[in-house]
Predict the 3D structure of the following.
Amino acid sequence: MSVPIVAIENLTKVFGDVVAVDNVSFTIEEKDFLILLGPSGCGKTTILRMIAGLEIPTSGEVYLKDRCVFSSKKGIFVPARERGVGLVFQSYALWPHMNVFENIAFGLKVKRMKSGVTRDKVNSVLSYMRLDGMAIRYPQEMSGGQQQRVALARMLVSEPDIFLMDEPLSNLDAKLRLEMRAEIKNIHYQTGATTVYVTHDQIEGQTMANKIAVIDNGIIQQIDHPKKVYHRPSNLFVADFIGSPPINKMEGTAVMRGNAKNGTVEVKNELFSLVTSYRNVLTESEVVAAIRPENISIVSKPGINTIEGEVQTILPSGPETILQVRYDGIMFSILITREVDLEVGQQIYIFFPPEHILLFNKHSQSLLPLM
Amino acid sequence: MLQIGSELEEASETLGARWAMRFRRIILPLSIQGALSGFILVFITVMRELSLIILLVTPKTRTLTTMTFRYQEQGYTQFSSAISVLIIIIVIAGELFSKKLGRKTTI
């Protein structure tokens, strides 16, 4: 175990009578890229601002590189300027009365660096961010993507220990966002700086992070590797929030087939029964079975875990096609990564592989263990 | 000054700037134009205000400000101070009232 670079303990922030962040704890190790992911208003930005020192927590503790920067118990609050963190804002927050060079050089001037050194550093970060020749431009004369690069350059030039980014890509168009995603990932790879990145875009979470914290209502629902969050979501909220099109869900009752040693759990409702790879679920308990759209397959004949549905919509998009198939009032989304020759209204057999079915407790909403 | 996005100031704070530096390098340059135009607006109003008051004043009706001035001239300092206090109370009441109105319309 390496030393945690950021450690947060029982952090709570209350605005008026709204609990924005509710007793959150987590640690981030060196070179981690953590994404705080959640719907708007879930408290993710507040957590980031409390790490930066721009928001004073109601209670809890924050440690940066083993140094306590906030503690409600010990009465410690280290201001943002002494925390050694770099922050990129959603709005970029470039100063309109300064040109690009002055914007980037500001942090070095604050540190009283010699003007020669400042010039060299700014010029090298300008060329690193492919902003050569832009030094004397003003922010309002640049495109959104260029402004974003300047904002990144301004953070990079001060060489902070920790990078904090607050939805840096949400003001960019789709193509530019893809480019900048690669750029930020590359910066992280080259600098190796511990990064905390806030977004509501679950694809950003999947593509960039090595750790995702899914947040809802000020509480961390799950913090894990992106693959784990995707394939083993800890509860129905996470399962629903991650993945596009969203996961398919069916309510039913768990029934045990065979004996406890080599039996299987079936999910039954008035329409169908599904065999799962679960071994031990409380019989007669109410469950929600869920399966990712890409795990449902189209088959040619009826069989186990197969139902006959009617194609409702076909949404082709280059390499993949999303199908919506209706079965007695339930709509299933299916993602197919090849071209399909189907028509709306056609009857097809769809198969739910038992190993891909996840079961959740209907009441607690949490994922049931396989064994 | 409230109109300057707080993020512009926060950005300089995370880069290590103390309050004085933030004020001098970020807030002041960005707000100087607004401050100047605000000053000019008030200045113009004040200039006009005096002429209006003079029109209102007759030997029978006097405004609080001219009364203060007259008492002060005649050496009744206590009277003029009392009226000044009255003016301050009226201004504060007006200010509070406008704030209350403002809150109602913004929410």
Q: What stands out?
A: The helical segments of chain B are 6-14, 19-56, 64-74, 77-106. Chain B has a mean pLDDT of 83. The CA atoms of residues 31 and 87 of chain B lie 31 Å apart.
